[in-house]
Design brief:
82 residues, mainly beta, 3-stranded antiparallel β-sheet, 7% helix, binds zinc ion
């Protein structure tokens, strides 16, 4: 699923649990990351789950933090802090 700035979710249920955060790479590439609240899946409530990113970025598994993903710019291959 790709978040579209021009066409936000029209589904209230979906909007309640997911939210998109603007991201920007140091090279100027801009996009958005879609997160989902994960209170039920993660009782400790540490942080939401990163679901997807818009075109121009992609998700990659972190090497040191097993099970977590990082956002990578598809243009310059830089990791974008979330
Ligand atoms: Zn970049």
């Amino acid at each position: 699923m790709i978040f579209d700035f021009n066409n936000p979710s029209k589904n209230p249920d979906e909007a309640r649990e997911k939210f998109a955060v603007p991201i920007k790479c140091k090279c100027g590439q801009v996009g958005s990351a879609t997160w989902e609240e994960s209170a039920q899946l993660n009782p400790k409530g540490a942080r939401p789950v990163l679901l997807d990113v818009s075109s121009g970025f992609y998700l990659r598994l972190r090497k040191k933090d097993i099970g977590k993903t990082e956002i990578v710019c598809a243009v310059c291959e830089s990791v974008v802090p979330d």
